[in-house]
Amino acid sequence: MSSATAQATANIAFIKYWGNRDNALRLPANGSISMNLDGLHTRTTVSFQRSLPYDELIINGKEIAGPALERVSCVLDLVRELARTGDQAEVVSENNFPAGAGIASSASAFAALALAASRAAGLSLSEPALSRLARQGSGSACRSVPGGFVEWYMGTGDEDCFAASIAPADHWSMVDCIAIISDLHKKVGSTEGHAVAATSPLQAARVVDAPRRLDLCRRAIIDCDFNLLSGIVELDSDMMHAVMMTSTPALHYWMPLTLEIMKAVQNWRQEGLSACYTVDAGPNVHVLCTEQHAPEVETRLRAFSGVRKVLTARPGGAAQLVQER
Ligand code: PMV
């Protein structure tokens, strides 16, 4: 038996990934940029065992079967092919985020799985190769492999479609204050969402304009320019939700409180707070702000009735190996 344990953080996209040009390989319609979220991580142990009849998956102490197991087995199959082994694996995974916090765990989960499974199979993959492997489990997971502020390049095919660091975690002391509005499991997950993105007449315009938004966002990060960042991050989030709302079926992830907080954040910025919002495929609002303004932003978010809790996360590092046996 050979086993390895790895840990990876969740990430929040500044420029979003929504829609694939190849659903099976998870090749995105556009490039994206994100920040890893320190302290919100998944830790996964993979053990390949000759005696196991099939792959087993245990998440937070519960044995999981069905589509979630199949998705994990697909990534394990890629590892088995590379390592030329037929052994089945036991996968034991724990998320440290509060249960039901409404934080997507697929990015941290598949990044940790890619690293743990490849090491347990005796492979030493390069960072791009690991990022490509994680991508095939969940697109955004490829961005949780490198550290800090990360860009996922759309590439021309599987080979050059991976993420790399733009700047390390200590480059900019940014804080993501996450207002948790609902912990309900989303009805339409991102895999189904990506599949219908192209049904929106707005998706083509969103994709054509993506290189411009990526350039501005990359420049804002490199120069630590919060003004530039806030405009482009809010525009990009709104553009993704415009596509979601106009696809078939229409996907409405916002709740009234989501919009209330988005508007409040814009007012706070007028008052001089360095804060901006971004929203993923759910109702919770990520408020990005500078370290200096984080305590004030947190206090203001907690004051909304309907905000169940506020989590805070700072820029996080790369996926890392914790143990090998
Ligand atoms: O990696 P997925 O399939 O869970 O898609 C993530 C989609 C968003 O979170 C909405 C945007 C992003 O770029 O992370």
Radius of gyration: 19 Å
Small ligands present: (3R)-3-hydroxy-3-methyl-5-(phosphonooxy)pentanoic acid
Number of domains: 2
Which outline best applies? globular
Which SSEs are present, and which pair or pack?
Layout (H helix, E strand, L loop, with lengths): L1 E14 L4 E3 L4 E2 L3 E18 L6 E4 L2 E3 L2 H17 L4 E8 L10 H15 L6 H9 L13 E4 L10 E5 L6 E7 L9 H7 L6 H6 L1 H14 L2 H20 L10 H16 L3 E4 L6 E6 L3 H9 L6 E5 L6 E5 L1
Parallel strand pairs: 5-7
Antiparallel strand pairs: 1-4, 1-14, 2-3, 4-7, 4-8, 5-6, 8-9, 10-12, 10-13, 11-12
(3R)-3-hydroxy-3-methyl-5-(phosphonooxy)pentanoic acid binds next to helix 2 and helix 4.
Q: Your description of this structure?
A:
This protein has 325 residues and is α+β, with helices and mostly antiparallel strands. The protein folds into 2 domains: 2-168, 2-Layer Sandwich (Ribosomal Protein S5, domain 2), CATH 3.30.230.10; 174-313, Alpha-Beta Plaits (2-Layer Sandwich), CATH 3.30.70.890. It has helices at 67-83, 106-120, 127-135, 190-196, 203-208, 210-223, 226-245, 256-271, 294-302, and strands at residues 2-15, 20-22, 27-28, 32-49, 56-59, 62-64, 88-95, 149-152, 163-167, 174-180, 275-278, 285-290, 309-313, 320-324. Strands 1, 4, 5, 6, 7, 8, 9 and 14 form an 8-stranded mixed beta sheet that branches. α1 packs parallel to α2 (106-120), α2 (106-120) packs across α3 and α6 (210-223) packs antiparallel against α7. The longest helix is centred in the C-terminal third of the chain and has 20 residues, at 226-245. The termini are close together. (3R)-3-hydroxy-3-methyl-5-(phosphonooxy)pentanoic acid binds next to α2 and α4.
